[in-house]
Records
---
Amino acid sequence: MRARRVATLFAAPVLALLALTAVSAGQPVRSAQVVPAAASIPQFDHVVIVMFENKNYTDIKGSSKASYLNSLASQGTLLGKSYGVTHPSQPNYVGLFSGTTAGVHKDDCLSGQIDRDNIGNQLVKAGKTFKGYSEGLPKAGSTTCKSGRYARKHAPWAFFKSTSGAATNVPYSAFPSDYSTLPTVSFVIPDMCNDMHDCSVSTGDSWLKKNLDGYAQWAKTHNSLLIATFDEDNFTSVNQIYTAMVGAHVKAGYKSETQANHYTVLRTLEDMYGLPPLAGAANKQPITDIWTA
């Protein structure tokens, strides 16, 4: 097991002028001061991020209907101050993936592709690997808006120009049983029932245990990480969400009080792999208090 440390990218804050191409729905996004990269984040061989839907923090924390999600917090770390960036669902997924909602304000199926940088494209350009695994996706590379219980609005890589192809946009059935063959970073999106959107908390909690507990246990001894989180809460103004992290180098039974949202998680991943922070992630402090020495 190893924990390679990421070298500091910036010696001091510099002004970031990120001239980003806007999609037709919005305007270019410019960040404020760039926060220096953290040097104390382990670089994992594999990170898997699984996202659920529209549940308040209090619907999950301590709930008997979410016993497995709560067990992940006991095995690892709970982010006690984790928040979505907006409502409704789709812009939260876009934000986590690219550091900006990119002018996306609704859940409507986008008619075109977003042509801007994102964590998937960053990883590939840096010689790493990325895939998005979506339950119910009809076939690799499909850009269909909806198919059965699959909804593209929950799979942002499917409508970014650089990550929508068959190499990166794949069905969940392609998720490997040999976890060592996983990409550097993977997103896993359950279907509209198993992500708790159309079905119960207990349904999604059981799905997570059945499908990803094997990876969670393996990750602890194989320099890997599981992040289980939500897109947003159930449309309150607080927008607090449940986020748990478990794996190697993660404090067990720890509750972090670090203020975090989707941009914070993105910034942590970017610092982890020495990637330049994108848009709204540039002025966020990465998560540093949850790692063991």
---
Amino acid sequence: MTTTQTAPTMNAIRQETLGGPEVLRLVEVERPAPGPSEVLVRVHAAGVNPTDWWHRATGGLTGGAPVPLGWDVSGTVEEVGLGVSTFTVGDEVYGMPLLPRAAGAYAEFVVSPARHLARKPAGISHVEAAALPVVALTAWQTLVDAADVQPGQRVLIHAAAGGVGHVAVQIAKARGAYVIGTARAAKHDFVRALGADEVIDYTRTRFETAVADIDIVLDAIGGEYGPRSLETLRPGGLVLSIASPAEVELAPVAARSGKRAVFTIVEPDHAGLDEITALVEAGSLRVAIDTVLPLAQAAKAHEIGESGRTTGKIVLTVA
């Protein structure tokens, strides 16, 4: 008599249709297994980001079909695939696997290419580590890789109290820039505590009338903020948009006035994560946590995130 082995399972958040937060459900699914050059991570915490609710509602860059959500992850290595030499079972890791392809980090386990992860910064929790990868890599890749921000440059950061914004303020300051942020008045003390030299209340003041001679703008809002940001730039200045693919249309507008505009999409980046780890361990970068919820409350996490009133990050706890 033969015995049929049952494949191991796990709890995960899934959706059958595109829609609002209510489409998110906690279900039992088959546990993935790592392939060559991959590791299986036991998830301790998963960060929540705007790209998550964008993909939930529209399918994002995946062709309009529902995908397993979640890209921010912190946890421990459970298994290693063939050929992996960077990690061993039990290592604490964090990262942003596969973006823009589906990773499915809202789950008890996630498979990741080994080089999409890095060792978790010492001295911070899994909740804090899970809040970092998407926002910190976005800020690093725009400000450092794309713009090469230099000491003394004037950097304007929109939504400076938000997920990407509050990390971008700190990275720009660590690079020696003069940083100006936009935020509601209630968040000005928070943004200044991050190191911002000036903060503009965008609800009372049109920022383009309050600042000038800006070298670099980081725009996480899009829409009219792009053209308005161009007005703040010095000749040759740069607007970096992370808001939506529609922002690529700003590039020819900028060029006509001797300025530049670039739309960027964050990419998995082991080397960038190592740079971020170094900043965290040196005390130059910290992540603010707005809300922590259990995995089963992913829908509530999305509701809170889409309100646009958070300061810092939302994180789901798993293990």
